[in-house]
Structures are given as C-alpha cells and as structure tokens.
C-alpha cells in the first residue's frame, strides 16, 4: 500500500489522485456508445453477437431466457446450509427495509386545501447481477428483495452466462427463493442496453438497478433519461480507520476481503496513527494472503490501488474520510473516537462501527442493501433502498374557499413571471 502522510507538502493532491475518477476512459465510453447503438438498431442479433464476443457463449432467442424448471430446480443443487443462509439473508434484508417503507399521507395546507403524497411501485424494473469470476449471489438478495417488497409487478434480471451458456446454480437458487421468474443470460453493456431499449426477446424496463464494472456504469450513465437508474456503483471500495486499540489482523483481513472481488479496480484505503501500525497491518496482509484462493488478485489491488494515510487528529481524519466518500467505512477505533467520527463523517455509503463489525456482514446479511455509492458519489447518493423501486406522486385538492385564499399569491407570481394565462386560469374560477 502507498503511504500518504497528512500535513506533508502535496498531501491534498496525492489524496485527490488516489481517489477514483468518475469519468470513464475515452475507449470505454466509445465501446459503450457502439454497443448501445447496435442493440438499438439490431436488437437480439446484437445481444447475441456481443454475448459471444465478450462472454464466449453462443445463445439464441430460445436459450437466452432461463427456463422456469431450471430456476425451480436450482435450490436443490445447494447444500442445506447454503439454502438456509440464503433464506436467512433474505429475512434480514426484508426485515430492515420493511421499516423504511414510505407511507402515503394527506393533510391541510395553510389555505385549507388537501395536500399529500402517494407512493406507487415502479411497474417494470431490471436488475443487473454481475457474474464472471465471482458470482454475486448476495447481490440478488440485495436488489430482488427490495423490488418484491416495493410491490413491483414485473422484475427482470440479467446476469452474464458462462462459456457454456449456463448461469451459476447458486445465483439461480437465490433468484428463485426471492420470487424472481424472469431471468436472462446477458451481461455487460448489452444487458443494460437490452433492458433500457428493449428487444424482441427482452421487453424494456422502466428503471435499472445493480452494480457492475466500468463499462456497466458508463452504460447506465449513457442510458439515463431513456430509462431510470439507481446509482452508479462500480468496483468495491473500503476505508478502514484504526488506532492503537485496533487489531492489525482484523484490519488486514478486512482489507483483503474487499480487494479480492476480482475486477482489479477496487479501491482500498486505510487511516492509522503511525507508520508502525501500518507496518504491522502490512505484515498481517502478507501472512494472511498466502492462504487465499484470490491471493494474486487481492495483493494486486492493494499494491496498485491501496493507500494508507498516516493521521491522528480526529478532525483531520473526518475531513479525509468525507473527501474519499467511501462505499464502506469501518471504524475500528476506541469507543470515544467512534462516537465522534460517526457524527462527523457524513459521506460514507455504509458505516460499520467497531472491531467486531467487518464489512462482510453488510455484504451478505446485516440488512441494508450492499448496493452503495462508489467513485465519491456518496457525497450526494445514499445506498439502495426500497423507495428507489417506487414512484412518489404529490396530491393537491383545492375547493372554492381555499382557492380564494391562494389567489393573492398566484396573482403576484403571475405578474412577476409575466404569465397572464397562469393567473387567469385561477381568476376565472373565482369569478364563477
């Protein structure tokens, strides 16, 4: 991991360079534009061609959609413990998000008119679930459970196929247990384009959800407006803040956990009080990595995208953390410091408090969705929630008495904005 020291000359610029760039590289943007244009022009034909090019799988209109019996049979391929784990994670996520369900309401405004809000599920949503080297079973739960809880009538899922055209049985099992029936073997940009634009085989959706690589995120940016998007959650990020009370082994394990996702673009940040602490953690990383199946990938991320900041002042630490706006923030510091930092750090996607709370709990089962803002978008985005799968409509109902009270305001604004038809539309009702 690269070492940065707070207060040293050039620290701010070094930190800026260390943080993810929101702008996609020119070659990524060009590829995305080409794929989207081809899917819009050729439909399924382009989807099949790009699936063969990028995923090495040959599919047809008959094999593109996962069959119902394949979905229903998938849970039987898992062990009892695996099925139980998926069901428990579903329960935890559903329990958490049920508490966040918005309620429609009505009240009287100062004019005596009835105003309020009504919430409706989005009619048709598309969920993207990354596959590739790491089939993200947990991502199924973190998105499908919310869609079902919101009451979305139609839920379509796209996930990349293997070279043989199959989808991981564990992914299919989770989808079936979440109640999803419409699943397509499509990955990458062509999946987002098919969901947003629609093809003969894949009906268009109203909004797309889910994490992905740089190409998927650029596709969501390019398609926004034609279709709704949730966030722009790219490769995983973590910031761990430690002090003299921290366990170096715990911190090392959590850094490796976030570095092993497999894209090679993950960002890993650490803030500790001294170089001695950083050295102890690095020694643990080296030792623990030897036993990992994704050893080379994890160490590669830590070498190229890992940054350790040396800082001890809590105000400075909070300032640094708020600038990074990490997807995951772990506070492995003493209790008094936790309380201070938990109030001062306001841009983290998820905050995991204390040495006994590794990010993996949020990844798999704690309850909040693990689809979180990355690339510093935590400055203005929060993590995925059930309201993302719903529409809000405002309600306004005036009568003869209440419009009379509103008329002076309407008349004044109509005059200021020189919009006589606006004013006249209310005045004629008063004259009646």
From TrEMBL:
CDD domains reported for this sequence: Histidinol_dh
GO biological process: L-histidine biosynthetic process
Cofactor details (free text): Binds 1 zinc ion per subunit.
List of residues binding NAD(+): 128, 190, 213
Keyword Transmembrane helix attached: no
UniProt cross-references to Pfam families, sorted A to Z: Histidinol_dh (PF00815)
Family statement drawn from the similarity comment of this UniProt entry: Belongs to the histidinol dehydrogenase family.
PANTHER family in the cross-refs: HISTIDINE BIOSYNTHESIS TRIFUNCTIONAL PROTEIN, HISTIDINOL DEHYDROGENASE HDH
Protein name: Histidinol dehydrogenase
Native species: Cerasicoccus arenae
Classification of source organism: Bacteria, Pseudomonadati, Verrucomicrobiota, Opitutia, Puniceicoccales
